[in-house]
Design a protein that fits this description.
Elements (H helix, E strand, L loop, with lengths): L1 H20 L1 H8 L2 H10 L3 H19 L2 H4 L3 H23 L13 H29 L8 H24 L11 H4 L7
Helix pairs in contact: 1-2, 1-3, 1-4, 2-4, 3-4, 3-6, 4-6, 6-7, 6-8, 7-8
Amino acid sequence: MAADALRILGTLSVLLALLLHGLTDAAIVAFALPGLMLPRFIGMRPCADFAVSVTLLVAAWSNVYDLYTRIGWWDVMVHFVCAGALAVVAYLFLAHRGVVAPPVARGFSAAGAVVLTTAFGLALGALWEMVEWIGHAYLTDRIYVTLDDTIGDMAAGGFGALVAGVYLAYGPRLIMPSALPARESSETTSRS
């Protein structure tokens, strides 16, 4: 229920950002909405769902309040945490769709999960940096873009995805067995 409340808060946040800060900031907050919905759709455990939702809302509102430029270490920390969270969501989405083996299923490779999760984090980081560049070049010069910032953000995100991949592979299950494809959920063992 707490994660669902955050999804409602995220939706209301778009309207609040629009009313108080303008269209650009509302669009930035709206960019988080798919990420808020996906953990519920793929059946992530409530604590993991809540953690992803908090991470995305903090990342979005940090942009609105310019925390990335006001607090020196904030940008790197948010890229580390957010890329890790989204990379795990990407892996679990593919597991939910039967594309990759979910954790604890026959055919699951811990090393493969770490490599894929890291690659997802790097890819998502590259996409985000492209969106920032497009926003800076075509929408507003308020979006902070430099080569050092871009490379630092991608490195932090890649490292965050690597750490998250290790957690996905060796930590407690982040997805409920009932959310897995039928053939996979019957092959899994429970591990908390």
